[in-house]
Structure formats: C-alpha cells, structure tokens
C-alpha cells in the first residue's frame, strides 16, 4: 500500500524592522525574541565616535550596531517573521531604505530619557506610509512617562500602538510585535478596501 508523500509547507516570510535612535535597545529586542542566535554587527565604540554619538543618559554603552541585527521567529509552519534591527546613528541611515524595502511594518523603540532619539524613525515610517508600533523601552523598570504622554509628545494618532515594554524580556517584546502585526493587518485591509473592484 502506497502512502502519499506529504507536501512540504513553504512558509510566508514577513519582514519587520526594529528601529529607533542610538542606544535604545534594538539589538537587545532582536536577541530577546529570536528563536535562533541573532546575527549582530556590534563593534566596540572607539574615540572615532567622540563628538558624533552622544552618550548622554547611556554613559556605560561600549558597543554599537554598525550594519544591522537579524533574528527569526516562526509563528506557525506557514508563517515566519524575519526581524531586522536598524543602526541608530545618523551616519548609518543610508542603509534604512534598503532594510525597509518590502517590510510589513516596524517597531520604533523609544527611551523616554532621550525621547528625541526616536523622532527621525517616526518621521521616516510616517513618510513611507509604513505601519509601525512604538515600544517604550523601560530601562531598569523605570516608567517615567505614560503611553499617552509619549503619544502626545510624538504627535501620534490613535491608530498607532504605543506600549510600555522591556526589550530584554521575550514576552514583553512579543506583545509589541503582536500589536504591530495587528496594525499592519488593519493597514493592509484598508488598502485593499480602497482598490476599486476588490
């Protein structure tokens, strides 16, 4: 008796960016949720960055991402998320257009001690029309601002999720990613509904 060979499942790959300013926890978030050892391009900071990278509020930072971080999460056999952490320093922003190509959406990490570090990320995704969620990375458990205060400071509408999180914690980071998937789905449905005859 012959058995039919099972057809292998070809997963749909979804690309998500983890963005934000310098030193907000992007590498940490990718590492906390990735099911595989993440690819990191962290290099030691040297005197060459003096005057270019402000360490105000993050004086103990000794390494920085110089290209990107990469991780993977399998949601189901037919659905895989690929996470790309962007470099935060202004001099590496030329890479963002390539990294953002084909992205479903983005998580913008914010540090309320240096909220201005995420302004450029928010502007970038708003101009591209890319759905995004904001994760307020609560370093050492500090919750100095509420989500509504951050929403107002960033001038975000009610459709953009703004959540407190801890980038070191897998479950906390997953909640931000799930909120992003919800808003990306709503964005895709709205776009489809606006196409005549669909």
UniProtKB/TrEMBL annotation:
Keywords: ATP-binding, GTP-binding, Hydrolase, Nucleotide-binding
InterPro entries: Gliding_Motility_GTPase, Gpn, P-loop_NTPase
One of the Pfam families matching this protein, by short name: ATP_bind_1
GO MF terms held by the record: ATP binding; GTP binding; hydrolase activity
Record has Ligase as a keyword: no
Protein family per UniProt: Belongs to the GPN-loop GTPase family.
Full protein name: ATP-binding protein
């Amino acid at each position: 008796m012959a058995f039919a060979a099972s057809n292998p499942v070809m997963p749909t790959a979804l690309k998500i960016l983890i963005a934000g300013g310098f030193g907000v926890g992007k590498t940490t978030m990718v590492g906390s949720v990735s099911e595989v050892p993440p690819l990191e391009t962290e290099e030691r900071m040297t005197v060459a960055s003096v005057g270019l990278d402000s360490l105000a509020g993050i004086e103990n930072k000794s390494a920085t991402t110089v290209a990107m971080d990469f991780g993977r999460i399998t949601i189901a056999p037919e659905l895989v998320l690929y996470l790309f952490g962007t470099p935060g320093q202004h001099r590496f922003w030329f890479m963002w257009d390539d990294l953002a190509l084909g992205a479903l959406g983005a998580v913008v990490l914010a540090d309320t001690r240096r909220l201005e570090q995420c302004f450029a990320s928010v502007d970038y995704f708003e101009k591209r029309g890319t759905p995004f969620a904001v994760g307020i990375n609560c370093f050492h458990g500090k919750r100095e601002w509420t989500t509504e205060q951050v929403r107002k400071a960033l001038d975000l509408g009610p459709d953009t999720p703004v959540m407190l999180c801890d980038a070191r914690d897998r479950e906390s980071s997953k909640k931000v990613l799930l909120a992003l998937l919800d808003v990306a789905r709503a964005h895709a449905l709205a776009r489809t509904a606006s196409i005549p005859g669909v």
